[in-house]
Amino acid sequence: MAEPDGRSPLPLVFDEPRGRKKPPRHLADLTPAERKDLAVELGLPGFRAKQLSTHYFGRLVDDPAQMTDLPAAQRDELVANLLPELMTPLRTLEADKGTTRKTLWKLFDGALVESVLMRYPGRATMCVSSQAGCGMACPFCATGQGGLQRNMSTAEIVEQVLAGARALARGEVPGGPGRVSNVVFMGMGEPLANYKAVLGAVRRLTDSSPDGLGMSARGVTVSTVGLVPRIKQLAEEGLPVTLALSLHAPDDELRNELVPINTRFSVAETVEAAWQYAEKTKRRVSIEYAMMRGINDQAQRADLLADVLTSYGDWGWVHVNLIPLNPTPGSKWTASDPADEREFVRRLEARGIPTTVRDTRGREIDGACGQLAAAP
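Structure (tokenized):
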């Protein structure tokens, strides 16, 4: 089957290993209509599915005993068929006085993934994983060095967000009761390589309560290393999520080394697809750029990056997010000198390109960008 741009299918490195048992079906995997149909199949009134959705998404209940509007016998059957346990927390590490929390999850088949909750004044962001491991093999990223184990299901992705939402709602995070305002698909995995499940998760998160969590799509960011056909496909979905393109180099020679998928889709093709996404959705694209000492942080590369991004005329379509490289065990890559970082910013801003340097929260608990490795 051809890709949306007419090319042959994406190579097998994008696919999970075959023969794996799928995660149990969960309410969050299903549309509201599918939930109702399942309840009817079980011999239960269809409206019970909506009641269960209200508990899960609306009230953030995870204890069946609290679902007192459901008759006990029906409750047990509904919970068994629609709310199976998907993942077990093994460890939670905290930083920033408890406002940054990284959780290690064990999935039903033993696969390990991590998610990070970051609370800021006025907002709370969940950074979620979409795959156990990653097949993109970027050499400076701890996740990429571990390889791909499998794709996560829609419900496994959603449950990471719901776990964070429950912690906030129950006042378990310093700052009092709160809610998840932002979700970033920047944890383990390449989100667009698990397109169907990620799209399903975005829809569950943005569906109106109680069908979903009721978040604004503008609070959701989907990151990618540049799967061009999938970027184009996402642009047609009618979901105004923010696209974050992990570029890391403005020229093919260096990006081929840093982001191996660039040998399939060049810098020009990738940035063109991102620009088309911005044109279609009217959402500004974030360009992610990890700053590596002596590798991609030279002044001339800042100029070249500016040339690439401004070649589309209106620079307002894009924002550059520079990421001080976070350390990973055994890596030869190190963060840029602060003076080189400042010069990089200065050159981009001089060309009219909005640029910020990302806050490296969670670095001390290996919870920052590029550090998630799900070590037991």
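Residues 27-82 form a domain with the DNA polymerase; domain 1 fold (CATH 1.10.150.530). The CA atoms of residues 53 and 210 lie 6 Å apart.
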